[in-house]
């Protein structure tokens, strides 16, 4: 049975300029519901800018970004961001809140009952592989980097948003923990059916996580392919990235 792909986000002729310089130009692509799209590219290629256009931390200078068929500029900002979890490298956990309270932040803003928030926080801790009785009452500084990232993922999932944006969330981890958490996250993403946009400059990570890889170069999206097709790309920038894989294998 072939399933009709449903569009979650669409970029239509999107350009963003600052001081007469285009940070991203002429972006035209769709992100499908349930997929894991990895934006890959060198530092400064425009990955983070593209991501921030989705949750309207930035707005296009030209063109439009549609979330659920409505331009982001027409969305109520709060409502839009509640539908889009956001995980960044530094996790942004509040240092003076326990793990449980950090995870329950959005549910408490949405006025869930305390008992319901606690149950949800514990459910999510289990989901990301942290034993609630050990971790729920700890503070962020009492966790390792990998554990903090897991809490960051749990927090982003707390109110069950259909979409997650992840900006190099595993960048600071040692390679073994990183691979472990990448694999777990991939499984989690597939099981939960979330739409994920993931930014990285690490092609190995792109191959572990993605259903499609979008390669950015100088503010443009130059290749957008499933990993198998990406491997055969003849674009010089794609070949430069693929060479990094050869060195690591
Ligand atoms: N607010 C801003 N004002 C002006 N220029 C900016 C702004 N934010 C980013 N830029 C520039 O836009 C370009 C793209 O930046 P962006 O952060 O999107 O790249 P990136 O691919 O995510 O890089 P990295 O991997 O280093 O995080 C860079 O040249 C950056 O210096």
UniProtKB/TrEMBL annotation:
Residues 9-243 form the ABC transporter domain. It holds the Pfam family ABC_tran. Keywords: ATP-binding, Nucleotide-binding, Transport. Gene3D superfamilies: P-loop containing nucleotide triphosphate hydrolases. Its EC number is 7.6.2.9. GO terms for molecular function: ABC-type quaternary ammonium compound transporting activity; ATP binding; ATP hydrolysis activity. PROSITE patterns: ABC_TRANSPORTER_1, ABC_TRANSPORTER_2. Transmembrane segments: none annotated. It comes from the Bacteria. It is an enzyme of class 7 (translocase). The keyword Ribonucleoprotein does not apply. Belongs to the ABC transporter superfamily. This is ABC-type quaternary amine transporter.
